Amino acid sequence: MISNLLLHPGLILILGALVVPFLSGITRKLFVIALPAIGFLCLTTLSSDMGITIPFAGYELEIFRIDKLSKAFAYIFTISSFTAFIYGWYQEKAIEPMSALMYVGAAIGVVFAGDLLTLYIFWEVMAVTSTFLILARRTAASLAAAKRYILVHVFGGLLLLAGIILFAGETGSLAFTRFDVVSLSSWLILFGFLVNAAAVPFSSWLPDAYPESTVFGGVVLSAYTSKTAVYTLIRGFPGWDILIVLGCIMTIYGIIYALLENDMRRILAYSIVSQVGFMVCAVGVGTPLALSGAVAHAFCHILYKSLLWMCAGAVLYRVGKSKCTELGGLYKSMPWTLGLGTIGALAVSAPLTSGFTSKTMIIAAVESQHMFWTWFTLELAAAAVFWLAGIKFLYFVFFNKDQQLKPKEAPKSMLLAMSVLAFLCIIIGLAPEKLYNILPHTDVVKSVMPYTFSDIYVHHFGHVVTQSQLLLFSGLAFFLMLPLLKRTHTISLDFDWFYRKGSALVYNGLDKSLNLVNVKVDTLVRLNLISKLSALSKRVPLTLALAGMNVVWMLQGVTKSKLATKQCQFEATFENNVFPVGLSAGVVLAVFVLLSLI
Questions:
Q1: Does position 48 have pLDDT exceeding 80, yes or no?
Q2: 451 burial class (0-12, 13-18, 19+ CB within 10 angstroms)?
Q3: Three-class secondary structure of residue 239 per DSSP
C-alpha cells in the first residue's frame, strides 16, 4: 500500500512543495519543474488494481482510486503544471511555486479520491492554497479579491460538507459514485460542486479573483478549480437535466460579459465561464459520448486557455497594464507572443486545432439526443467565444491604436512554455485519436472522430466546413461591428455586486446595531451595575465592622459625643485599608475562636 501511495502524483507535488522553501536559485526552479514531470511518469505506471482503501470510523475510505476518468484529468493537470513552472522561471520568491504545487497536488488528489471525505480534504486544501496566488500580487485590489474569493469557497465548502454529512447518515457510506437518488444531501453536494464550477449565479468569483492574481498565478488558476469541479460533476451527476440548463446559461453569460469587458484578463476569465458551460451541459446530457466530450473539452480547454493566459501574462509582465484601452500596437515589439497567442485563439474552435476536436463530440452528443435549442446555443457559443477570447483579445491588445509602449519581447522561458502548449494544441487537432485513446468510453468516442490525420478532408467533412463557416462569419462580424466594440474606461457589474453591497450593508448594520448594544450594556453594567455592586461590596463589610467596633467602644466607655468621631476615623481607615496591627490580630483571633467553636 505504501509503495502505491508513493506513486500518487498529487502527494508527490504536495510533499515536494514542503521542500521548496529550503531551496533557492536555479536549484529551486529546476526542482519545481521536475516534480510534475515525475508525477506524469508515475501516472503512466498506474493501473486500476493499485488503488488504496482504508477503514476509518466505520467507513471504507478509498483514498486512491484509479480509472480512465481520473487518469485523464491527472494527465492534463501534470502537463499544465509542467508548462506553468517553465513559464514562471522568472520567479524569485518561494511563496508562489510552493502554493502552486500544493494547489495542483490537491486538485490531483480530488480526481483520485474515491470517497467524499478524502475529496473534501483535498477540496479545502485547493481553496486555501489557491488564495495565496491572488494574495501574492500584494495590491489593495488583490487583497480584497482574495478575501471575497476565500469567503465564496468557504461557503461552497460548507455546502459540500453539509451534504456529505447528510449523505453518510442516509446511506451509511462515504463512497463517491454516481448520485442516483435525489435528496437534500445530493442537492447540497451538487451546489458545493457548482460553486467551484463558477456556475451562474455563483460565477462572479472567477472573473473577480483571477485577473487580480500575479502573472504566474493567473496561468495556474485558470486550469484547475473549475475543471476539478467538472470532474466531480462527471463522476457524481451525469444525466441531471438541471445541468443542461445551467450549462447553456453559463455559455451565454460568459459571452455577454466578455463582450462588455475592458480588461484583457477579465475577458479570458469570462470565456472560462462560457467554456465550462459546454462541459456542464455535456454532463447534463449524460450519454457516454457526452461525458467523454466533457473530459476531452476540459483537457483541450486547459491547453488553449493556459496559452492565452500566458500570452496575456507576458504582456502584463512587460507592460504592467491590463486594460484594452491602455494597450495596442504590441505586434511590433512582441511578435512571438502574438504568434503563439494566435494559435491559442484558433484552438478555441477552429478546425485542425484541439478545441474543435472536443466541441465536435459534445455537439454530436446533443444532436443525437435531438435537443435543438441546446445544440443551437452551443453552436452559437462556439462561434462567439472565438470572437471574444480570440479575435477581440488579440486585436485590442496587439493591433489597436498604438500606445507607443514598445516593450521587450516576452522572456525566453515564457515563450518556451507557450510553444509547448501551442504544439500540443496543433498536434491534438491534427491527430485527435491521441487524446481519444485516454478517454472513458473510447469505442463510442472513435465513432464520431471529426477526422484523422490521414484523411482530414474526407471523414466528417461536414463538421469541418460548418465550423469553418461559423468562424469566418464570426471574424467578419467582428470587424463590421468594430466601431460598436470600442472599449471605454468602464467596468461591468456582475453578480458580485450583490455580495459586495450585501456584505457592506451587513457590516454596517452589524456595526451600528451591535456597537449600540455594546454602548448600552457598557452604560448599564460597567457604569451603573458594577459601580453600585462595588460600592455595596465595600459598604457591607464596613457596616459589619462598625457594628463590631461600636460594641468594643461601648465596652471601653466611649461617650456618645466621641463615638461619632471614632466612627468617622474608622471609616477613613477602612477606606484606605489601613488598620492597627493589634486590631487586625484581634480580629483574626476572634475569627479563629469562632471557627473552633463551630
A1: yes
A2: buried
A3: coil
Q: What confidence score (pLDDT) does residue 185 get? A: 93
Cα gap 279→299, rounded to integer Å: 11
Instruction: Label each residue of 267-298 as H, E or C.
Output: HHHHHHHHHHHHHHHHHHHCCHHHHHHHHHHH
Q: What is the DSSP string of 112-178?
A: T--BHHHHHHHHHHHHHHHHHHHHTT-SHHHHHHHHHHHHHHHHHHHHHHHHHHHHHHHHS--B---
Q: How far apart, in whole angstroms, are the C-alpha atoms of residue 163 and residue 117?
A: 11
Domain limit, last residue, from 446, 463, 491 = 491
Domain endpoint, select from 491, 513, 544: 491
446 burial level (CB within 10 Å; 0-12, 13-18, 19+) = middle
Give the C-alpha separation, 389 to 258, whole Å: 8
User: Is 128 in the same domain as 233?
Assistant: yes
CA distance 413 to 514: 54
Q: Exposed, middle or buried by CB within 10 Å (0-12, 13-18, 19+), for 332?
A: exposed
457 vs 303, residue with greater confidence: 303
Q: In total, how many domains does the chain have?
A: 3
Predicted confidence band of residue 11 (pLDDT cuts 50, 70, 90): very high
Lowest mean pLDDT among 235-244, 279-288, 552-561: 552-561
Give the integer Cα–Cα distance in Å for 470 and 472: 6
Average pLDDT rounded to a whole number, residues 414-433:
92
Amino acid at 297: H
Do 536 and 473 share a structural domain?
no
Are 122 and 109 in contact by the 8 Å Cβ rule? The answer is yes
| 486 and 535 in a common domain | no
Top pLDDT among 495 and 397 is at: 397
Whether residues 447 and 304 fall in one domain: yes
Nearest to 574 by CA among 543, 552, 551: 543
The C-alpha cell that represents 48 in the structure block: 486500476
Instruction: Give the domain extent around 485.
Output: 241-491
What the block records as the C-alpha cell of 94 is: 518561494
DSSP bridge pairs for 323: 263
Q: Which residues pair with 175 in a beta bridge?
A: 115
14 to 126, 306, 348, 385: CA distances (angstroms):
11, 22, 31, 35
Query: What letter represents residue 34's amino acid?
Result: A
Q: Which residue has the cell 526552479?
A: 29
How many Cα atoms occupy the beta-carbon half-sphere of 394 within 13 Å? 25
pLDDT: which is higher, 498 or 183: 183
User: Mean pLDDT in the chain?
Assistant: 83
pLDDT score for 476: 63
The answer to whether the CB of 489 falls within 8 A of the CB of 323 is: yes
Among the residues of 172-214, which ranges form H helices?
A: 184-196, 205-209
Same domain, 396 and 513: no
Phi, then psi, of 252 in degrees rounded to 5: -75, -40
Site of grid cell 467523454: 292
Task: Tell me how far CA of residue 349 lies from CA of 216, 358, 470, 572, in angstroms.
Answer: 25, 9, 10, 94
Round to whole Å and give the CA distance between 525 and 341.
67
